[in-house]
Amino acid sequence: LSTNSLSVDHRLLHHLIVHQLLPTGGGYAKLSRMQAFLMWCILSKIKFCFPLLMLKTMVRAFTQKKSFLPFGSILTKIFQHHQVRLEGEVATKLKKEDTYNKSTLNRMGWKKQG
User: What residue ranges do the domains of the chain occupy?
Assistant: First the structure.
């Protein structure tokens, strides 16, 4: 399924999934089975085990030759909360696609009403 055929609301949900909940670093034009499943769970208000999903995603990333560490932003927040020392780590700025603002929502087709 192409993400272009999704409604604006579903495109935003898909964007959040591929950039925050299930970052894979791959293409975003097609909807994977796992992405569709997560969308269904969220829209149907069905609980899923996010820590297990994170763990499986990280293990999969570790076993691939070309990969990146997923959940960097989330892990940094967790480490900071638990006062894990991060000296010597290289800070990375968030990319535009990792932030949400008026411009991002306009590109996705959201229009201000009223």
Answer: 3-90
